[in-house]
Amino acid sequence: YWTAANIIDDAIERVRAQVGQDEVILGLSGGVDSSVVAALLHRALGDRLTCIFVDTGMLRFREADQVMATFDRHMGLNVVKVEGKERFLDALAGEADPEAKRKIIGRCFIEVFEEQALRFSDARWLAQGTIYPDVIESAGGATGKAHVIKSHHNVGGLPETMKLELVEPLRELFKDEVRRIGVELGLPREMVYRHPFPGPGLGVRVLGEVRAEYLEILARADHIFIEELQNDGLYDEVSQAFAVFLPVKSVGVTGDQRRYEYVIALRAVETVDFMTARWARLPYEFLEKVSLRIANEINGVSRIVYDVSGKPPATIEWE
Ligand code: XMP
Q: Does the keyword ATP-binding apply (predicted)?
């Protein structure tokens, strides 16, 4: 019968049989699936697992530090952290088109991962957090965005000479099962039950051209929104919530000074399958609190708006 502990024991046995005494590398994103694979393989293989974690500069507020604190310091995994911010931002400079931005981010990811993977010439295996819905999606030929992102870590992106074979211990599991084994493996609950986050990260939440200054403002505004959702017990009530940076200057006033500053949009949705979604009816008092905090704590923002669009016609992300 199904229990998280049974699934883990079974997966560990299978991984050990599959890789024997070999070394394994894993692209760790901080997302649920790759995090659970990391914890599982660490239990199965110990030091024979090396994780490669790329800080793209487009992660959530202090997310890179959290990932390192959890996996490297707390759980004792081998994690190689790669500072990628400059490379990603340089590659994105001047580009405002959303699909072009996604492609650039994907390409940078592959390049960084490839370079790092070459340093682990002893590795014979590449682990991936493919879950059952990803398998179905690619079998059906659908070009889901999540799948495209997963393919960044795919062998397809690695040099022929490396001849890495795939280890995919979550291939038969659904998301809720992955979460349950994540908790059982000792991952922090906040990490396992985090809202989904797109592969290109804040890169698609800064509308148009991505700049370091915009990312900084966005990460802080997003953090305030999420922190207040958690404080008020609303985080788990919504399926996904985040802030978006609008690079337009809108007029604001402080004292008798008119100032032209950026706009932050807040988005929160309720959905089961992410194919359609309803905007979350967050309490006005709550929105007011978040709006005041963003305006008071972040320089450069004087207007905050709440997105009241459903999907359709809008998508969940703004790009
Ligand atoms: P949309 O915006 O299409 O989003 O309504 C549906 C879900 O997919 C996520 N999303 C992405 N995930 N790479 C990803 O891995 C992407 O490029 C991407 N774009 C959207 C989005 O956050 C939502 O959960």
A: yes
Q: With beta carbons less than 8 A apart as the criterion, state whether 240 and 215 touch.
A: no
* pLDDT attached to residue 121: 86
**Residue range 4-192, CATH number:** 3.40.50.620
Q: What per-residue confidence (pLDDT) applies to 157?
A: 52
Which tokens sit at 49?
């697992």
Q: What are phi and psi of 224, to 5 degrees?
A: -60, -45
Q: Where does 205-306 sit in CATH, by number?
A: 3.30.300.10
Residue 291 marked ligand-binding: no
**35-62: per-residue pLDDT in tens?**
999 999 999 999 999 999 999 999 999 9
Domain-by-domain residue ranges, the chain? 4-192, 205-306
Whole-angstrom Cα Rg for the chain? 20
Task: Select from 274, 275, 319 the residue to mutate for testing ligand 1; criterion: most ligand atoms less than 8 Å from CB.
Answer: 274
Q: Does the pLDDT value for residue 104 go beyond 60?
A: yes
208 is in an annotated binding site: no
